[in-house]
Specification:
By secondary structure, this protein is α+β, with helices and mostly antiparallel strands. It contains three helices and ten strands; from the N terminus they run E-E-E-E-E-E-E-H-E-E-E-H-H.
Length: about 170
């Protein structure tokens, strides 16, 4: 990809905004603005009885509570597996004997460079949750089939959660 005129327009606590031009074949140069994000991890906790633990939390960006998998932002240079283990414990108190990769998802590649690493957590043992001071989280444990039905019906709208549910259900 050939680029020119790169400029950082904004650098915030979580995201940055970069503007640059990209040469698109014979169509010439076009301006793009990309939200830069360090990436994250999401973990689908699947219990031995076929239930999953999701979290309900306020998402100010959409002005409502969403039902999601436990997730968090990667620290610079952090291993995604380590981040997933940390976030699972902080948000739900769960400790997993097994963490299986469910691949990655690009949340909105037309605008964001964010990539979320997904994991399936099994062999779960309940411990004590320790959410961040600004998080108000409710853990909701429901049958996997019900969570899948909610995703299909549009009651679960978070992309990382839908992708995790579908990939876990269809894994070999």
């Amino acid at each position: 990809m050939e680029t020119r005129n790169r400029e950082i327009l904004f650098k915030g606590l979580v995201v940055g905004l970069e503007q640059f031009e990209v040469k698109i074949g014979a169509k010439g140069w076009h301006v793009f603005q990309i939200v830069r994000h360090p990436g994250g991890v999401g973990v689908l906790p699947l219990h031995d009885d076929g239930t999953v633990s999701l979290i309900r939390q306020l998402r100010p960006s959409v002005d409502r509570f969403l039902l999601e998998i436990p997730a968090g932002r990667l620290d610079p240079g952090e291993d995604p597996l380590h981040c997933g283990i940390r976030e699972l414990g902080e948000e739900t108190g769960l400790v997993a004997a097994n963490m299986e990769s469910l691949g990655v998802v690009h949340t909105s590649p037309g605008v964001f460079d964010e990539q979320i690493h997904l994991y399936l957590a099994t062999g779960l043992v309940q411990g004590q949750a320790e959410p961040e001071h600004y998080e108000d989280i409710e853990v909701v444990r429901i049958p996997m089939a019900e969570a899948l039905a909610m995703a299909v019906a549009g009651d679960i709208t978070d992309s990382k959660t839908m992708v995790s549910l579908f990939r876990a259900y269809h894994r070999a």
